Amino acid sequence: MKNKIQSILSFFSLLLILSTSCKAQTIKARKLVKNTDAALNSIETKIFRIDRKVMPFSKSDTIQTTAICSLKVNREDIVAAAYHKIDVLGAKNNYTFTKYDGNNLLISRSTLDSLSYPSKTHIINKEDNNFLSYIYGFDDYLIMGHYETKRPFRQMNSLIAKLFYIKKVNVEEAIHNGTPVYILSISTRNRKNFMEDAVMHHYIRKSDFLPIAYSFSGHFENIEEYEYYEIEYLNINSNIPLEHFTVHEEDQQLILKDLYKDFTERLNQ
Fold it and tell me: Among residues of the chain, what percentage have pLDDT more than 70?
């Protein structure tokens, strides 16, 4: 009888330990976003690959692009928040090379069958009237929302966000492409002249609290928009000199063949 009671007590003790352990595993949203902000703020430079799939309102097909981005954070630059250099392989065999040094933005484009010829290159100064329209075209690759402020994720915990924009925030644990992650899911409120049923999922790597994937879906007037991207960090906080991003006058005559070759080699590493 004594052994039976001890067995029962041991069984319930084990259940209690497992129950406590399971509850402790899921981090609260407030703590998760705080840790994610801290992880992003620890980054001064990084090189990463980003694979994007997006179906915007104006299109009926999914657009797929792949980019390798070098970034040096500079929050004092209120427009771009970072010096950067990007290679983008886009739809219809288009290749784009761009870099920004804090004063000038260079954009050079070519089709893959014309890489040996001078490309269509523009250099836009920060003071030009059309500068913003050009540089914001690359925000989706640089994920600048992560660096424009020191607390990008904790903004969702603000009173204004909770009252007017966010309907529900949830955190769960999962394995994403073999990596343990927290999935931070955010549902927004339906409002007049805004997207309906909008849901965002941030995939936060458990090991260092860095975002490694993101998905978004929503509707506007029964038209769906969808976005998904994955991030692979190639290098974090290496010493990237400013010369790496500098735009020179001779860049006007860029031929992209060698740059594209280097880009594809890095993609296949």
Answer: 84
Which residues fall within 8 angstroms of residue 220, CB to CB, at 6 or more apart? 57, 194, 195, 196
Residue 80 gets the label, from left (phi > 0), alpha (psi -120 to 50) or beta, of alpha
> pLDDT, tens digit, for every residue of 212-229?
999 998 877 777 788 999
DSSP string, the chain: -HHHHHHHHHHHHHHHHHHHHHHHHSPPHHHHHHHHHHHHHT-SEEEEEEEEEEE-TT-SS-EEEEEEEEEEE-TT-TTTSEEEEEEEE-GGGEEEEEEE-SSEEEEEEEEGGGTTSB-EEEEEETTSTTHHHHHGGGHHHHTGGGTSSS-TTGGGGSHHIIIIIEEEEEEEEEEETTEEEEEEEEEEPP-TTS-EEEEEEEEEETTT--EEEEEEEEEETTEEEEEEEEEEEEEES----GGGT---GGGGG-B-HHHHHHHHHHHT-
Segment 85-123, tens digit of pLDDT: 999 999 888 999 999 999 999 999 999 999 999 999 999
pLDDT averaged over every residue in the chain = 85
Looking at the DSSP bridge assignments, the partners of residue 196 are 219
* pLDDT number for residue 218: 86
